[in-house]
Amino acid sequence: MVVLAATGIVVDFEPELDRLFHPSLNFITPGSKILSLAEIGAGVSQRFGGEPVVAHLPSLSPRLSYHVVISRGIVYVNQYTGEILGLRERGQTFLGYMRALHVRLAVGDLGKNIVRCSAAAMVFSLVSGLYLWWPIKQVRIRGDWRSRRFLFGVHNSLGVFSFLFLMSLAATGTVLGFEDQLAPLIYKLTNSVRHEVSFAAIQEPTTGSVPISADQAVTIARTQIPDGLPYRVQMPKYGGLYQVAFQAPNDGTADGNNVVTLDPYGRLVSSTRSSDLSTGDKVLEINQAVHTGAIFGIPGRVAVALASAAVILQVVSGLLLWRRGTKSPLADRPMREQVAT
Known about the structure:
This protein has 341 residues and is of the alpha+beta class. The protein has three domains: 2-95, no CATH class; 108-191 and 288-340, no CATH class; 214-277. Helix content is 49%, strand content 12%. It contains 13 helices and eight strands. The protein has helices spanning 2-12, 14-21, 23-26, 37-47, 94-104, 109-133, 148-161, 163-177, 179-189, 214-222, 279-292, 297-323, 335-340; strands at residues 55-57, 66-70, 73-77, 84-89, 229-234, 242-247, 259-262, 268-272. The protein has an eight-stranded antiparallel sheet with strand order 4-3-2-1-5-6-7-8. Strand 2 and strand 3 form a beta hairpin. It is elongated, with a radius of gyration of 25 Å.
């Protein structure tokens, strides 16, 4: 539980921490005109021995650099000047390792099973803790900070005031961990099925057909999702299709589902957005957004981080109480006096 909470805080602010650790790669001074994706891609390819571009990752902020994915890693580019800021080669980073720890303890399926069972155990711990607290209902912290009475007050007060936040983390984490097993039940309860993207038949190019550029792919894709901001453009070099992913306004739960797919000649293959999801799909997406805090933006992520910190404090205070003995400091008093206290 401590590992999940500590790594959860890091993962919650992974983009911001990455920029903090690598400011020279991420932060730029905005210019008057943004270069086209074709110009940026050509500059990157020329710099790295003709390597083709796998994907463009346009920035959603004018002060953050564009990212270009090539086979050897991610290239950071100033989209106003075309300057190559640096290359991050493929490999495990510190933040990537934190994510692997949070999801599967960085040890594969065994770690994944431990993580999801720990989330379920946290739900049980919270429910049983509330049951034990209810007769006493202590919310005040008293006694010397080194005393067991003080620890008992901290453990009770912190637990009850953070209960709803901790339960939301534990419950949504449990659903994420057992999603494969719970998804059929969720679809049944919501009387819905998983939304399947329908793909148009890919036709052979006609005589004289000219392949489109990445910029043209974005322009065509915008006709399907005109209010979206493109944050990923997958090139057809790998997979044979353009895929343009959009961030839709006021949609913090399902950005990955706002995707338009085109063939290399600009013909529409598929188009889907978060509003197309079934009720069951939306329940699962909202569950993940609540767990990460993304559903409420920055305030939600801060709340998740604080709740994760509360998990650590609860575990530490609980262990210290257990080490000093399992008996409550109020256990020898009559119940009426306990309640009054």
